[in-house]
Amino acid sequence: MAAQTTRENVDSASDSDQGEGLIWGYHFVPNEPAREITSQSAIDFLTAPGPDVPGEFLWLHFSSSHAASEPWLRRYVTLPDAFYESLHAGVGSTRLKQDADSLLAHIHDVLFDFTFEASAVASTSLCITSRLLVSAHIRPLRSVDKLRAAVQAGQVFRSPIELLSHLLRDQASVLVDIVRRSTTRVDPMEDQLLAKRVSVSRSELGSLRRMLVRLQRLLAPEPAAFFRLLDRPPDWITQEQLRNLQQAAEKFSNAISDTAALVERVKQLQEELAAVVNEQTNRTLFVLTLVTVLALPINLVAGLFGMNVGGIPLAQHPYGFFLVVAPLLVLTAFLAYWGLARRRD
Question: What CA–CA distance (Å, rounded) separates 282 from 119?
């Protein structure tokens, strides 16, 4: 009955919330789908003396680029200063740490319209307590949108930690999808290199490797901070929630491992491409050098016999031309045979 009363008092979200920076808000009751709420309903929940239903909590998602977001949060919610600092921080490494009785997370994800550009990465700041999850970003991200889609589809979440675990799993799924798409681009390049066809773009391989290394560096959580959280979690996190968070982190670690394997594969392709290009360059230089060596005796003799001085040998001999050309042809044939024999070796 209490749950029924609480649900009836929760209003649906409206466009007026955009003026306060709130993009969406959801109210969660145990064992029931979440319901979208307005900023006023969130204020009523946050200013209430205690929960109407045990285990209920909110998810409030803000636009950190909106000027009214931070003042609204400072007015109605007590959050650590580190959370507000993370709103203005640049793109760094993924962090998950404990601050007093709250969890702070600064995670990175690709943009919703992600292309294979290293700059298409943005961050999301989160603060998690036993009754509240606050998130904020500047641009729409894939994993956050997938989490919202799961909430709208009626999936039941029993705690903010389950939302965080689901977000990490969605983030890992997005990374796996990127690795899969990258692999479909790498496979044809590898086949061409195995066939000794240098039609692979070195710049494309380089940009792909840089993008994967950047994603691996930005999306991977700091292992030391995560293990500290697992060893000494806040009191309100249950063992089951901690196991869910650990499983999400393990899935994310597997995705990072796949990314590292693909980075190593791209690196080997770059080395193979460099080797093929060097081989072709050496072959071309060898041909040019061989032609130069073969033409050297003829050019030398032509230069000597072309001098406008007296005493040129065989100048009056009826077969002088053939007597000069015959040794040159023999010498040229010998040099050609020697050069080609060395090439085969």
Answer: 38
- For the chain, helix (H) and strand (E) counts, in that order, are 10, 7
CATH number at residue 315: 1.20.58
Task: Give me the residue label for tokens 């039941």.
Answer: 156
Percent over 70 (pLDDT), the chain: 82
User: What is the spatial distance between Cα 224 and Cα 139, in angstroms, rounded to a whole number?
Assistant: 29
160 falls within a domain: no
User: Hey, what are 44's tokens?
Assistant: 């009523």
pLDDT band, residue 1 (cuts 50/70/90): very low
Give the C-alpha distances (Å, rounded to integers) separating 99 from 105, 131, 221, 232, 241. 10, 16, 17, 12, 18
What is the C-alpha to C-alpha distance for residues 145 and 124, in angstroms, rounded to an integer? 12
- Number of residues written out for the chain: 345
163 near 133, Cβ under 8 Å?
A: yes
Q: Is residue 339 very low, low, confident or very high in pLDDT (cuts 50, 70, 90)? A: confident
Q: Which candidate, 53, 57, 54, 55, places its Cα nearest to that of 37? A: 57
Tell me whether residue 326 is in a domain.
yes
What is the distance in angstroms between the CA of the first residue and the CA of the last residue of the chain?
A: 90
Q: Which residues fall within 8 angstroms of residue 250, CB to CB, at 6 or more apart?
A: none
- Domain span at residue 331 reads 276-344
Residue 295: inside a domain, yes or no?
yes
Q: How far apart, in whole angstroms, are the C-alpha atoms of residue 99 and residue 106?
A: 13
Looking at the 3D structure of the chain, how many domains does it have?
A: 1
